[in-house]
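Hi Y.,

Following your request, here is the sequence exactly as I used it, all 572 residues.
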Amino acid sequence: MYKIHFVRENKFVEAEEGSNLLEVWRSAGLMPDAPCGGRGKCGKCRVRILGEETRVVKACEMRVHGDMELDTEYVENGYHILTGGRTRAVSFHPAVRKVRVQVPMARIGECRSDWTRFTDALSRTEERAGQEYRVNLKAASVLGKLQKETQGMVWAVVSEGHILQVSAEEPQIYMAAVDIGTTTVAAYLLDGETGAVRAIASGKNPQAQYGADVINRANYCLLHGMEGVTGCIRETVNQLVAELAQKAGIAVQEICALSVVGNTCMHHMFLGAAVYSLTKAPYVPAVQEAMICSSRDYGIALHPEAELWMLPNIAGFVGADTVGCLLSSGLAEEQEWTLLVDIGTNGEMVLGKNGRLLACSTAAGPAFEGAGISCGMRGASGAISHVRWSGQAWEYETIDSGKPLGICGSGILDLVAELRRSGQMDEGGYLEEEITLADGKESGNGEPIQFTQRDVRQLQLAKAAIAAGIRMLAMRAGIEVKEIQKVWIAGAFGNYMSPESACAIGLIPQELSGKIRMIGNAAGEGAKLVLKDRGLWEEAQKLAAEAEFVELATMKEFQDCFVDEMEFPELR
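Below is the corresponding structure, written out as tokens. Let me know if you'd prefer a different format.
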């Protein structure tokens, strides 16, 4: 065994000789960045080995051969995580509520149990005749004593068919919602009496250390099991929930329900459900249905009887996050053709009008999040977020206004759009020469920030997948793309990108220019809505069941359309 010292974090771990350094880094709980899943392709897991001959290596290609001192200076920090989004007004009929109940005292000779008398009284109080409640033995055991202390007047915390607790004193109740994105996780604390947001917390999705996209993570699970991937996201959810409670000055045990959205793969990995079916044709989920289960069974520390509300998935790569977007945006009620697009490693999109919903997913890859791009990075501090060509030189903005460390998705879109406008790149994507946005003296890490011909090809693949998906949905709906009247872009990347740049490069068809609106983290808003109005739980299931999933791979026109969309549109 050898001692491995991560000097920047002052963390010591022990590792066996021959251990993979990336695995050691993960075991230290430091969440290395490994978009390619540790296959040596992305170079993001670089680490500096300190000693007589200091050198930089890819951790995934390095084996432990002795005591080591490591500097993880290449880790991205300062993420800008989108937590707000478009939502709709709803009446407040919460998923979890507190009810004051007058329970009749047992009479001599009566055979009805404390629990039966209590639930009968509760049904009358809530005007839900015949409502059945699962027996909560812990609650039932204290009812007799409580009744005598309070002359039968008790408080109950109730969910659908589930009584979480009974008490003499009026309880304080809260609810939480979590959006598990591929890159980031956003969490919200809701007041149980008003539905108001009391606190917000967010952080990186630690699963990024197993791959930037869902396919790399799923493949890791197939090879190594799900324990690491599932355990780290549950730990992060627990940390964020604890942060919510700390910010609001409450106890975690007062949170009585947690709703969760995420794409189908994130959903499965959080639950620990097998992802095998998602990696093999025809790419179906292991579970599609909505679920209400015990949070305790999934390692989430809340109220002892708290429930976990998992929104339904639509298909293998159109998940509960899309259902959340549909709920919060009200797309099903739109009376003219409206397109909802969430642009990420998978481009999920829904086209709808008058209740008809057509959904699909395209494998855009991680280029929009900086992976696969030579100097790409996520939307973190130091990322070039916007670019402009002055006619003589490149001008750029960085997140947090510091020295540039790389370029993120919104900056890549601007750069390619400017290359087209300035004539430095043709319609086919041919780049006259490598582009240097900042040399080593200007950058924050001493390395030049450059954009290459290979980077253009990576972007072309990603943007063609999205654009072709949009055109195929329009074709299936029997309309021309120009007939789409509204375009709603959801998610963090969409929120920060320039619509003009997106249309200029053909990511969004030019026919839709001027119709684009950003709706932010609509998935997270949907997760909150099912807690605010329990009637929306049924609506979420209805939306998932009635959405028509369009499998692009089965459309003979898709491949030709994809190839056509590889080219950049003519300048307007």
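DSSP finds 15 helices and 25 strands in the chain.

Thanks again,
Q.
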